[in-house]
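DM from R.C. (forwarded with permission)

"hey, sorry to bug you on a friday — could you get me a structure for this? deadline for the figure draft is monday and I only need the backbone to look sensible"
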Amino acid sequence: MSSAIAIIAALAIALLLGGCSLYHHAFPDSHPTQPGYDLEIVQLDDFGSFWEPSRARATLAKVEAQSQSRSESTYVVVFIHGWHNNAAPDNANLQEFNQWLGKLATELGQPARAAARLELTGSPAFKLLGIYVGWRGRALPGVLDYGTMWWRKSAAERVGDGDLSEFLERLQRMYLRANSLNRYAQDPAHTTFTGLFTIGHSFGGQVLLKAIARPLEAELAMRAPSLTDALEPAPTPPTPTLERVPIDSFGDLNILVNPTTEAYQFARIDGLYRQLAYSSQQTPQLVVFSRTTTYPGSLSFRSPGH
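My reply, with the result:
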């Protein structure tokens, strides 16, 4: 009986501390990088506010300056970690994302890809910018963190609704502006482009979906003929309306990896999406990757192509 009480007490303490301020701070930015890419880290608190707004502004300014380059193309990759992770210098997700950026830079620098950029833009050069979005995915040390699931999920939803949403929207505006200016450049031989890719894993997928759902829904709602019902989808969907003009994407691609989110949160996007038919020019906007054998917080970065 005493051991059972002790276990219950330990779990209660873990759950209580999960909502408190332990580990509730910004981590120092200390990460070695390799040649060929830059890595920026922005961190948010449990309420969705940037710990260091000046750092977020500096990151946006860096992307803005790079996206205006007429001599090299720009790739921006945003990664949002999930449960049991944060922006600590020794965090496995941060370290592996850092290493993966180095592998991606090497892959993008291969002769065949450089030749393709030369043919398409007039310049083989490129710049890779990685942005690691850190939040309090880990709230307690060791196995105690497994008692924080519902608190961390709620925090993930607040993070997605907070400053990060504006941050990603500003990246989107830079992406559209840079590619629009390049498209109408006076010298067609030098039309470098800017690419924007976002990735959210586990609760980070919840964060990303919260941050981009409204813009995606708005694009679809402007074209879908009927108000969707997320609770009771039509048993016999109407014949989709052909959308001949491609829908503007939020960046180039948004990827959710094993997202820890309810299907209901995706239902409105799905209901609007199914009302339309798309031309061959329409690019994917949201891709979900899931697997049946995984464990919370786990993510292995592989080299490009795997």
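R.C.: lifesaver. The first helix runs from residue 2 to 18.
me: no worries. Residues 15-23 have pLDDT under 50 and may be disordered.
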